[in-house]
Amino acid sequence: MSISIEGITKNFGSFQALKNISLEIPDGQLVGLLGPSGSGKTTLLRIIAGLESADEGRILFHGEDVTRLHVRERRVGFVFQHYALFRHMTVAQNVAFGLDVLPSRERPPAAEIHKRVQMLLEMVQLGHLADRYPAQLSGGQKQRIALARALSMKPQILLLDEPFGALDAKVRKDLRRWLRTLHEEFHFTSVFVTHDQEEALELSDQVAVMSAGKIEQVDTPQKLYAQPSSRFVFDFLGQVNVFRGERSDSTLRQGDAWVRLPDAAGATSLQLYMRSHEVRLQTTPAAHAHLPLRIESVSLVGAEVRLELSPVGWSSEEPWEVGITHAQFNTWQPQRGDQCFAVPQVAHLIEVDAHTPHTLRWEAGEMDDPAAMI
Amino acid sequence: MNRSLSGLLPGRSSQPGKRVLPGFALSLGISLFFISVVLILPVTGLIAHTAGMGWDQYWAVITDERVVASYKVTLWTAALASVINALVGLLLAWVLVRYEFPGKRIMDALVDLPFALPTAVAGITLAALFAQDGWYGQYFDLLGIKVSFTPLGIIVAMSFTSLPFVVRTVQPVLEDQAPEDEEAAVSLGASDWTVFRRILFPAIWPALLTGIGLSFCRSLGEFGAIIFIAGNMPYVSEITSLMIFVRLQEFDHAAASAIASVVLMASLLLLLAINLWQARYLRRLHGR
Q1: What molecular functions are annotated in GO for this chain (chain A) (predicted)?
Q2: Three-state DSSP state, A6
Q3: For chain B, how are helix, strand and coil distributed in percent, rounded to 5?
Q4: Using CB atoms, which residue from B191, B194, B286 is nearest to A135?
Q5: Looking at chain A from residue 89 to 148, which residues have their Cβ under 8 Å from any Cβ of chain B?
Q6: For residues B117 and B123, what is the distance between their CA atoms, to the nearest angstrom?
Q7: What class does CATH assign to A239-372?
Q8: Residue A76 contacts B where some CB pair is shorter than 8 Å
């Protein structure tokens, strides 16, 4: 079932939580709403569910206007961050709740409810816990029960509010994978809220990045990461290295550092944004860039070696971070305090007061002999 | 490494069995002493007073016809007053927790008034209000209902003095109740009434029952507020507390103590029963 969000506005007193939000969620997709706290993502999710009402705008399910429809009638599955399991009921009673409260005409016989509940519990691999009380379960188990309960009414739309936010890293990863499988198996349309970029990028078909009540960008995770459409998205999606400078002719300069731009842009005050994988390090400066850096720390944990660097003879608000492979690390053996030079390969140019980046690529010919690279 | 580290620590903190939090012995000692002086000593005194009587005498005093009639009056009026308080108190707590309205804080403060007000003052005020020509009494009179000098008056006085018990025990539990539980239930298709019956009520039920129990026990022992409005007619509107007072005025201390011990026993047993039941219920919620 597709979801259309049309011009939703929501105020809490004088605070504008959502500003004219429009979003199309195609049938069967898993869409992440990503943003910092206070960006309005949970409010939007609650408006889709009908737990909150919008001041303006419409919500449509499969082309049908449900804006005025009560939560009860919207038939969505909703999963809360803190599970919201009924403490005084057993796991089985929790899962059966939706079926139990059906009007007697529509309610299946007790034996069938029991069978459905068992099936749902098997689906979340917790059939053996049917008679336990929620207080006896771990966080991950509780959230799986909450999911089983949300799915008990066979909803075509599943909404999840920071579903893994309260869980530890390992359980989170398991549940993420498991939600993805579940989604593929049952073909419902899912929307989930998260403030974790990694989670959003890993799990979603599409991610809507939100900031201060507005949607900044809606795209597939790949496009979002490679081509952020605004400075906010850039900053929010992972570590970024910034070089701010003044342009004269085709050279961007700040202190001792400079970068030669492949094409001359209009403004003079410019910023270059570079992801850590878009920068290389070498021990001598390149022909098109002179960005001296000192190594502040070396972190060997993970798939690549991460170096934290501070500018030498120029400045940046945040330290730089660049990743090199373990093989490169072994041949180079960089130490804390060593000096090196950053060589941008792809960079995103943003005028200081502007919003949208412009991607720059240096052709192989403009760059140095690859042999000089580490 | 291990040895050098432990050498740095002061010796006494590594003593086995030593508590980390200080002051246990002192604070427990003071608490026990206070409880003994304020609670247990008077109770022992009460029993000591009755100890002079033989069993037969004791039994005769507490089963005296007029006294038994007073038990009945006290019990059923206290029961009714507690039921009324359960309903009104729950509603009041609900309104105070769930809604925002002007004057909410004043209303919240007013709930405690029966605790703060001397019960005799409450008694005189109620008696005046419900007298046949009083502000309220005249309208009740038109309906043919007599409040003053009847058991109905006793119920009114009992409800007044013990209302805060229900409100104040239910209120914090209702405040702690996460709105998500109700939202989850509604999103699963439950009606408002079902949500109340199956989600909210089970959560506040232990607190409500405690409130009702406290309210009932308080009503059993209430004296000041009731005697002014009850009329104190033997066999009709005479409460047990008054019987104690009457025996005292006859300088029959032993008999007064004997009747008092019955009230005390009833209250203690009821509170104990509620506590036991509640502990069992809460154990389930907390998974122990």
Answers
A1: ABC-type sulfate transporter activity; ATP binding; ATP hydrolysis activity
A2: strand
A3: 80, 0, 20
A4: B286
A5: 97-98, 101-102, 133-136, 146
A6: 10
A7: mainly beta
A8: yes
Report the residue of chain A nearest B188, measured CA to CA: A98
pLDDT digits (tens, 9 = 90+) for A60-69: 998 889 888 8
Helix B240-249 and helix B253-285, axial crossing angle in degrees, nearest 10: 150
CATH code for the domain defined by A3-231: 3.40.50.300
Q: Do B183 and A82 touch (CB under 8 A)?
A: no
Domain B54-285 has CATH 1.10.3720.10: yes
CATH 3.40.50.300 placement within chain A: 3-231
Closest to A80 (Cβ–Cβ): which among B184, B284, B286? B184
Query: Would you list the domain boundaries of chain B?
Result: 20-51, 54-285
Q: Which tokens belong to A269? A: 């005050």
Q: Does B287 touch chain A (CB under 8 A)?
A: yes
A225: alpha, beta or left? (left if phi > 0; alpha if psi -120 to 50): alpha
A292, A316 in Cβ contact below 8 A? no
Chain A residues touching residue B287 (CB < 8 angstroms): 133-136
List chain A residues with CB under 8 Å of B180: 80, 82, 84
| Complex ipTM tops 0.85 | no
Specify the pairing of strand A157-161 against strand A76-79: parallel
Q: For position B9, what pLDDT does the model report?
A: 47
B188 contacts on A by Cβ (under 8 Å):
97-98, 101, 149-150, 152-153
> B185–A149: do the CB atoms touch at under 8 Å?
no
- Contact list in A for residue B202 (CB cut-off 8 A) is 88
Tokens of A286: 């390149």
Rounded to whole angstroms, the Cα distance separating A132 from A116 reads 18
